């Protein structure tokens, strides 16, 4: 893999080693296009950063206990609720890594990423906080250092995370991910993705355990389904490079079937997948850990995406977002993991 560094977004950078009064860090949500769950068994996955759902963290010096200000909780980090255990673990690991004391810093996060919906909110939060702390210390994290720090939190959240969320929420480009490493994708596809939230919390930890249990109970079928998801992901690479939306859509729907058989769909996800297909989607599937959370539908053009989004909301989606597959990184400066 190419060597990469992650720099904070602060354009007033004074260079390494110069601590500052505030530090900032930026990450974003992610959507897994294909390959979730199979990626835990070494198969590849393809995921897209969602620039429309950014996460910004700020760290500022202020005497007193280490404090967090966020929508979910404001107060001493040591008293943060269980729901924030992953970012808390990542913050503590980052402070240790930077040699900073666990006090005299106020951390805050700003984001519209819904929590526990398969869009990578825990990795995005941990990642932005790690970048903000590094910026505060006047330091630059390498991509690997950043990944390792976010993974400390992800292990708390998911038990045995593949690293896909940690990598994609730090990236500004769609990624191919396998065995902890990412590489850029050749992406010529011009289509629209509708992301829809079932409104039900996803259960990644339970879903990952359920897939393992399926494999233990049905070893042959479990292995076959995971291999099928891997093969679908490899074929999707060509769909993206050769601008084949119809083929991609069909593969997404097949992937949903395999994931449902592995036990990680839910009635709400199946209903939204059915509603999207009935409204003209080229394909649809759950995204992320599943058993709740979000789904994706592929639309040929903007008009069709609007029709599908409206149908999804009528079918019970709490929220929908639109994402162009040919969207590029935002022009505004932000923390980045350059792929080149
Ligand atoms: C969660 O966003 C994706 C899963 O494949 C778990 C992982 O990769 O660690 C379900």
TrEMBL record:
A GO molecular function held by the record: ATP binding
Assigned keywords, A-Z: ATP-binding, Cytoplasm, Kinase, Lipid biosynthesis, Lipid metabolism, Magnesium, Nucleotide-binding, Transferase
EC number: 2.7.1.36
First-level EC class: transferase
Location of this chain's protein in the cell: Cytoplasm
One Gene Ontology term, aspect cellular component: cytosol
TM annotation in the entry: none
Pathway: Isoprenoid biosynthesis; isopentenyl diphosphate biosynthesis via mevalonate pathway; isopentenyl diphosphate from (R)-mevalonate: step 1/3
BP GO terms, sorted: isopentenyl diphosphate biosynthetic process, mevalonate pathway
Cross-referenced InterPro entries: GHMP_kinase_C_dom, GHMP_kinase_C_sf, GHMP_kinase_N_dom, GHMP_knse_ATP-bd_CS, Mev_gal_kin, Ribosomal_Su5_D2-typ_SF, Ribsml_uS5_D2-typ_fold_subgr
Family the UniProt entry places it in: Belongs to the GHMP kinase family. Mevalonate kinase subfamily.
Xref: NCBIfam families: mevalon_kin
Official protein name in the record: mevalonate kinase
Lineage: Bacteria, Bacillati, Actinomycetota, Actinomycetes, Micrococcales
């Amino acid at each position: 893999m190419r060597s990469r560094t992650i720099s904070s977004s602060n354009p007033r950078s004074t260079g390494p080693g110069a601590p500052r009064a505030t530090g900032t860090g930026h990450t974003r949500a992610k959507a897994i296009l294909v390959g979730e769950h199979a990626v835990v068994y070494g198969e590849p996955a393809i995921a897209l950063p969602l620039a429309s759902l950014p996460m910004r963290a700020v760290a500022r010096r202020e005497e007193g206990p280490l404090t967090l200000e966020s929508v979910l909780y404001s107060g001493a980090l040591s008293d943060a609720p269980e729901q924030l255990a992953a970012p808390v673990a990542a913050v503590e690991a980052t402070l240790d890594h930077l040699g900073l004391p666990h006090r005299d810093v106020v951390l805050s996060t700003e984001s519209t990423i819904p929590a526990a919906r398969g869009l990578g909110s825990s990795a995005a939060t941990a990642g932005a906080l790690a970048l903000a702390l590094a910026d505060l210390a006047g330091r630059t994290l390498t991509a690997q250092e950043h990944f390792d720090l976010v993974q400390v939190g992800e292990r708390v959240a998911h038990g045995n995370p593949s690293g896909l969320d940690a990598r994609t929420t730090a990236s500004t480009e769609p990624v191919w991910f396998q065995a902890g490493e990412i590489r850029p994708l050749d992406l010529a596809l011009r289509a629209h993705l509708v992301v829809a939230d079932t409104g039900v919390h996803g259960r990644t930890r339970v879903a990952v355990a359920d897939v393992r249990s399926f494999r233990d109970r049905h070893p042959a079928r479990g292995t076959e389904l995971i291999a099928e998801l891997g093969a679908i992901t490899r074929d999707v690479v060509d769909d993206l490079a050769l601008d084949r939306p119809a083929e991609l859509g069909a593969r997404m729907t097949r992937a949903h079937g395999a994931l449902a058989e592995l036990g990680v769909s839910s009635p709400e996800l199946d209903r939204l997948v059915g509603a999207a297909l009935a409204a003209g989607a080229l394909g649809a599937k759950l995204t992320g850990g599943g058993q709740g959370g979000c789904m994706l539908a592929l639309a040929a053009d903007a008009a069709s995406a609007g029709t599908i989004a409206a149908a999804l909301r009528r079918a019970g989606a709490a929220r929908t977002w639109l994402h162009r597959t040919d969207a590029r990184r935002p022009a505004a400066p932000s923390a980045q993991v350059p792929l080149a």
